[in-house]
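Input:
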Amino acid sequence: MVEPKENLSISCPLPQAGNAAASQRVQMTHGAGGSATQKLLDDIIRPAFDNAYLAQQQDGAILEPSAQRLALTTDSFVVQPLFFPGGDIGKLAVIGTVNDLAMCAATPWVLTCALIIEEGFSMAMLQDIVHSMAQTAKECGVVIASGDIKVVEKGKGDGVFINTSGVGRIAEGVSSVPGNICPGASILINGDVGRHGMAILSQREGLQFANPIISDCQNLAGLVASLIAEDIQLQCLRDITRGGLATNLHELCTAAQVSMHIAEEAIPVNDDVNGACEIFGIDPLYVACEGRLVVIVPPHEETRALQIMQAHAAGPAPVCIGHVVPAQPGPQLILRSRIGTERLLEPVSGEPLPRIC
Amino acid sequence: MRYLSEYRNATAVQQLARAIEQLVTRPWVLMEVCGGQTHAIVKYGLDTLLPNTVELIHGPGCPVCVTPVEIIDKAIAIAKTPATILCTFGDMLRVPGSFGSLMQARSEGGNVHIVYSPLDALEVALKHPEQEVVSLAVGFETTAPAHAMLVYQARQQEIENFSILLSHFLVPPAMQAILRDSDNRVQGFLAAGHVCTVMGYEQYLPIAEEFHVPIVVTGFEPVDILQGVYMCLLQLEQGRSEVENQYLRVVKKVGNSTARDLIAQVFAPTDSAWRGVGEIAASGLMLRPAYQRYAAQQRFGEVEKTSEKKGECIDGDILRGLKKPAECANFGTACTPDHPLGAPMVSSEGACAAYYRYRQ
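Output:
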């Protein structure tokens, strides 16, 4: 259950002064489809998302035909706490789906948004979350074209859950599916790993650091667009979310039937994240990010791809962490440790960090 | 990171590996007692840096692994009791009991709350005065002070909707049991650094003397472990059997006297059955009479002895170091971390989980 936190300070646009929402709470009638639902839409949702699709007041958005191939994805967000250093569930709900589209080498186009809200949830917090979604969508260049609101009884939800689906357009001749991965390819990442998961866990467990760990939650679509614009021969893209770097690379090994050799020394991990991981006994290679991706390119493209990533705001510290090798005997992810020994990295097991996105 | 990166330094590791190679003149068998050390050894491949003549076998120091099946069964029964919250560390969730695990119990409506610190259970109890809150307290001397503090605080704060399901074990009696076993192959021990942080290492002096085994209190990083191995092998090569302390930066001879006093105030030693190993005299902890009313057994009935089914898990052989995980026919096939047949595959300190995670 979420405790009301009206005094929470966040970076997204705050509701206008004097707004009656500050003392109001979501009631069952707000999800019933009647006048209360309309009022909620008129007061909070439509002003924030404001676009031509919503203005039509249709049950769905009618999209113009596209000459390009389309990518379609969906994701649900159940993160707890709802507000964390570096973001909130609203920002995450937009970024998560935008990044999934970007990993398909698509330019994100339109999103849908479904809110499942617990009865009694603070209207002011809802407004903050919706504003955060709107702000993030604007930054990502997508519109939230259709949506839905449901309310569940108190105790039957946990504040708010969000689902977003998205459609993006893929440029001619570009493909980023795991099947493209070939032995010899270079494995690049755009920065240090493990921030998002540790930001959430530290907040949840009340762990204080001199410098709080900030989630890396960020839009990756622009970075991917730069690589495509510069004609980098992409083999595969994958955002490093649940299960962390190790689990995501292992999935690619299995999907592409290849092995990968990566070097522990090459994988950047921020000192505070490392410290938090030591305290919780968690391997940073298994901790989720929300603004990091794996870019797999042929070896002759490695240097150019790293330069393009470095020049982009979302990829300031790109590195090559290893290479793809043939699967012998089966697909394996092999880590060369700092002390020169080798070990296998298996996919994450169990639920070490539940509800981080 | 100070006190960490220097103990993972590649040059220091290689120097120690070379020194060990030059030192050893004949085969030796060492046991690292603690599951945390087992994981570090397998994770960093430290055994692969040793000469073939030096064998490391993995000891019983995995709290999740040695927790008796009847404690798991009792915890599940408590979690399924109405108006009750069972608080536990996360790695107990998937440990198989006689009929399912706590994770299954939770999916069937049991109220299981994961805590990262034992004292969190008191907060849960204060927050839910209408519920009975039970802390499943498993572990060794390492977690004993925190669990002692939990019971001590419950009494100080007069929190009456709280009780503890205690399953705590002591390491030195287990080392003696291993050495007395007719199948024993252990010639030297790396003692568990964290246990000694609390208890010190005076208790090991009579063991080293009686059984003529060197015991080296050892830390958990690659340099710690290889240095501990070197110190232990040096004693063996020189025919000495003393207690030495590699983990000087943390462990004092007398341990942490505040923690020891608290343990002694709340708990008393008792005979205890280790899962897969059996009963060992004075190897467990029980609540002293002044704290008895916080025993979960007082509120939920005694823990009934479960006739431990001889299942497919060879945990007894694994925990006594008689077999390596890969020698089990079910390892990595019928038994994996997602479908464990026994506790050593579940725990973050279990030997089977370590081999599966890093070597399989």
